[in-house]
Amino acid sequence: MSPLAAGFGRHQKLLKGAQFKAVFDRRISVHGRYFSLHVAGSALSHARLGLSVSRRISKKAVERNRIKRQIRESFRANQLTLSSAGCSVDCVVVSRAGGAEQPNRILKKDLDSLWDRASRKCKSYRKKP
Q1: Alpha helices in the chain (DSSP H)
Q2: Are 75 and 110 contacting, i.e. CB atoms less than 8 angstroms apart?
Q3: b/e per residue 26-47 (b: at least 16 CB within 10 A)
Q4: pTM to 2 decimal places
Q5: What CA–CA distance (Å, rounded) separates 94 from 67?
């Protein structure tokens, strides 16, 4: 496994508003109960992740941070799945209402489903002429 796949360094993050806008301008979206995942192709050799967890999700920073940790860990574990779909991608995960009250296992299940669906959707777009 390459060092890029094992961790979650700065080079794997979307940091600027322009990077987020680029994803939203040419995205493929999949939606779950607690998250929406927006994916766009990238010229880089690795996947990158952007997070959007607003204060509307929870007023408590500790709950928002827990959700962000779950998203980052899920991305770290599933980024090879996205890369094996034949495209390197930039991903933005947007949290939806109700996630702050859920235990980590429910959030993980929802995120794993989104990564799988996004990977399949990306493959189907790559096959089209």
Answers
A1: 3-6, 17-25, 61-83, 104-127
A2: no
A3: ebbebebebbbbbbbbbeeebb
A4: 0.85
A5: 11
**Interatomic CA distance for residues 41 and 28, integer angstroms:** 9
Tens-digit pLDDT profile for the chain (129 aa)?
Answer: 444 445 677 888 898 999 999 999 988 899 999 999 999 888 887 788 999 999 999 999 999 999 999 999 999 888 777 766 556 788 999 999 999 999 999 999 999 999 999 888 877 665 544
Question: 56 near 8, Cβ under 8 Å?
Answer: no
Spatial separation of the C-alpha atoms in residues 90 and 109, rounded to whole Å = 21
Q: How many helices (H) and strands (E) does the chain have?
A: 4, 4
CA distances from 92 to 4, 27, 48, 103 (A): 18, 9, 9, 22
Span between the terminal Cα atoms of the chain, in Å: 32
State phi, psi for 69 to the nearest 5 degrees: -65, -40
